[in-house]
Amino acid sequence: MEEHQSNEPQKSAETKSITRTHILIVALVLLFSVLVFFFWQNKQLEAERQRQQQEISETYLKLDSVSAELDIRIETIRDLGGEIDTLEALKAQLETDKKNLLTTQRNQRTRISQLNERVSGYRELLLLKDQEIEELKVLNTQLVEENTTLKVEKNQLNESINRLQQDTEELQGKVATASRLQIQGLSVYAVNASGREREGEFRNRHVDNLKIQFTVMDNEIAPIEGKELLLRITAPDGNVLFDVSRGSGSFTFDGRELFYTAKQEILYDKTSQLVTYLYDKGSDYSVGQHKVEVYTDDYLMGTGVFMVK
User: Fold this and answer.
1) Is the pLDDT assigned to residue 128 strictly greater than 80?
2) What is the pLDDT of residues 185-202, one digit of tens each?
C-alpha cells in the first residue's frame, strides 16, 4: 500500500515533464513555421521588387533606344537642311520621361493601380453586357419554338435588336467624332528680316516669313499616336499656295483630292501642345484676305484668316 502511494508523485512528475516537453516542441514548431513564413514572404517581396526593377529597366532601355534613333534622325535632317524643331522637342520630352521613370516609381505604381481599377470597371460593364446578350439569345430561342401567335412578339423583339444595333453604331460614331482633335487660338504673323512680327494684317514688304501658330487641344478620348498636320493656305482668288520644293503636296478629303501648302508631324499624347509653322513663299502674297485651314487624317481641325494690304 505504501509502495503504491510513493509511486504516485513520481508518475505525476513524469507526466508534468512530458507535458512541458510537448509544449516546448509545439512552441519550437510554431516558431519554425513563423520563421519559414517570414522567409518565404521576404523572398516574394524581393522577387516582386526585382520584377518591377526589371520592367523599369526594360522600359528605360526602350526609351533610350528611341532617343538614340531620334539623334540619328535629327542629325540627318539637319544635314539635309530640314526643320528639326519638332524632333528636338520630342527628344527633350523623351529625356524627361527617362528621368521620371527612374525617380517616380511610387507615382507609377499609383497610376498603374488607378488604371487597373478602371480596367476592372470596364470588365464589369462587359460582363453585364454579356449577360444581357445571353438573355436576349435565350428569349429569341424561346420565341422561335413558340407557335405562330407569338411571331408578332418575335418580330417586335427583332426590331428592338435592330434599334439597339443602330444605337450602338450611332454611339460608335459619336465616340469617333469625340476623339477628333481640334485647334484653338490660330494666329498668323508676318516676320520680317530683322525678326519683327506683325499679326493678322500686314503689307507684303513686312513679310519675309509667314508664321502660323495654334494650339492642339487636349482630348482624353483620342489615342496616343503620331499625327500628320496639313496646313492649307488659300489666296483671295481661291488658289492654294502650293510649291513642292517647299513641302506642298495633296491629300484626299470627302472623296476629293485637295492640295496642302505645308505639313508637320507631331506626337500627340492626349495633352494640349503648341504647334508653329514657318512658311517662306518666296514671292509676294496677293492683296486681300487669305484663309488658313488645318487638317489631319480625314477631317478639318480648325481655320483662321489673315489680311495682306
Assistant:
1) no
2) 999 999 998 999 999 899
CB 215 within 8 A of CB 173: no
- Residues facing residue 29 across a β-bridge: none
Which residue stretches of the chain are H helix?
2-79, 85-103, 105-145, 151-178
CA distances from 222 to 89, 139, 179, 275 (A): 21, 38, 4, 18
Taking the C-alpha atoms of residue 246 and residue 177, their distance in angstroms, rounded to an integer, is 32
Do residues 191 and 283 share a domain?
Answer: yes
Q: Fill in the DSSP letter of residue 280.
A: -
Q: Which of 185, 187, 217, 183 is nearest to 200 (CA)?
A: 187
d(CA 291, CA 305) in angstroms, rounded, equals 5
Residue 257 and residue 304 in one domain? yes
Q: Tell me, what CATH number does 232's domain have?
A: 2.60.40.10
Grid cell locating 178: 469625340
pTM for this predicted structure: 0.48
Any idea what DSSP says for residue 293? Answer: E
**235 and 297 together in one domain:** yes
Between 85-103 and 105-145, two packed helices, what is the crossing angle to 10 degrees? 100
- Inside any domain, residue 166: yes
Judge whether 23 lies within some domain: no
Report which of 87, 68, 126 is spatially closest to residue 264, judged by C-alpha positions. Answer: 87
Domain C-terminal end among 62, 81, 103: 103
Amino acid, res. 58: E
- Same domain membership, residue 169 and residue 187: no
C-alpha cell at 284: 509676294
Out of 178, 207, 230, a domain closes at: 178
Q: Are residues 208 and 296 in the same domain?
A: yes
Of 275, 214, 278, give the one whose Cα is nearest residue 246.
Answer: 278
Q: How many domains does the chain have?
A: 3
From the list 215, 169, 182, 168, the residue with the least C-alpha distance to 297 is: 182
Range of the domain at 83: 36-103
| pLDDT per residue as tens digits for the range 107-123 | 656 645 554 554 455 45
